[in-house]
Amino acid sequence: MKHSTGHSASLDFAQPEPLDLSSGKYVKLWQGPQHPGITGNMSLELTLCGDEIVECKTHVGYLHRAFEKLMERRTYIQNFTVVCRIAVPEPTFNEYLYAQAIEELSGIEVPERAVWLRTLNLELMRLASFLMWIGGLSGAFGQYTVPNWTLAHRDYVLDLFEEMTGARIYHMYIVPGGVRAGLPDGFEQRAREIMDSTEKLLVQIERVMFNNTVFKTRSKGLGIITPDMVDPYGIVGPNARACGFARDLRKDEPYLAYDQLDFDVVTDNDSDAYSRAYCRLQETRQSISLIRQCLDRAPTDGPFQADMPNVLHWKVPAGETYVKAECTRGEYGYYIVSDGSEYIRRVHVRGPSYTHAIAVMERLAVGTNIADIAGLMVSLHTYPPEIER
Amino acid sequence: MLERLQREFGVTDINELKPGLTSLKVASDKTETLIRELRDREGYTHLNFMTVIDYIEDGIFTIVYMLHNYDNKDTLSIHVDIGRDGEDMVSIHHLWAQAWTYQRELREAYGIRFPGSPRLDEDFVLEGWDQIPPMRREFDTKKFSEERFGHREGRSSEEPREHMKVKLYPNRGGDEQ
To answer: Can you tell me the distance from the alpha carbon of A361 to that of B97, in angstroms, rounded to the nearest whole number?
Structure first.
């Protein structure tokens, strides 16, 4: 296991020389912005020589809604309708980090019960997101059975969100001071049943997808991230763990109840698309274990919300903070600056896709066959809205 | 370490924001050497992000570099003030492979130039944008929308705080008391 490699002087991350497009050797092809093999609406401008990619440029902006700018014009509480939309399959991490940043700047203590409910909420989100991702990767390699299974099971997890928060996608459940509600009657039993069925599903997925010769042949050796790329490119999450870096904010800088939960950081050493996928499969299993632990240990009574002032009078003291959490793709962060007024002065959302989908993708795509570009892209697990913000 | 940075790089305004997160300020002409020193000798190998805070009232942009040290789990928030009106900033594209992307974004969003940074003038998020850089405080999104897209019947916007008062206290005509 590696922790830090420093920077390699030999690693060349200069931009490539321009190609002579008039030579007749190259073809330009746009992958996306609408394509089933694209993770959200973004596009790759590919230059091909035969069926091999010789240059790749990532284009984003198709989902740009100026979230950060909008947030400067809304009161702190109003921004909760904005933050959850920054990473559609994982809104909860945005809610948590935004709330956490306000709490830090305002000196608000969150009750113990809310800490556990937040942890449960985040792990359910991780499970739902991974289920969608596994289906996406399988589909990108032409296997369409697994996506049907995983999307159905993701919907069962969304049922749990609906019970817990009242909403399936944009929950707005984690708010400054705690959460909006406790668990409804019978939730624990239903959650355990869904965890049991999902665990069985993962066994089937491992057999059908990960032991499948076609999937193995196409994903092994594809998009290898070498260890000396990790720090210079800012690679985090399973993309870094799949090449041996045992970095996970839940362990390294524990937040919420993670220091009381029993889990190990999942790593691998092959650092290709298969290896990243296998890491995520193990982390999906781990997430089920963490959800069960939260259900075992979350207090069932006591306050779930701290005493808070009227939302019309929220004024966050002047200051700045950076808070971060381990989302499914690695370090997700909120940098917030307050000038003491009712409106936020500046918010910057740091999503792992920013580097994974641009600098890393543009490098890994070169030398790849056109047929594998969708699989490579999904294997990096990127969401465009957190790039465009 | 911080004392040495003060001595050698003229670092000022050191402020521990919370355990493991410290902010500091450095002059723009010392920024590249300070960041290189932190990366190569002090173990701050991870560039979390780069961003800008627009202090229009003071006529400055504060560029923020967030650097993290994985070994001692410490993060530095490095602030650099530059003039808002056309002042260039030194590029760090040669220090991190994703730094040029941030600089390209800041060029588009705030109009800050980073001479030497690759693909700086390529559109990032806003294809064909011909207005002032939109993240600058003087760019009025509401005014832009009204001018660009015209009025649509049935849509209106309210001043948030006053609107919420009326919604929350309808029987008192929006009177909180």
So the answer is: 12
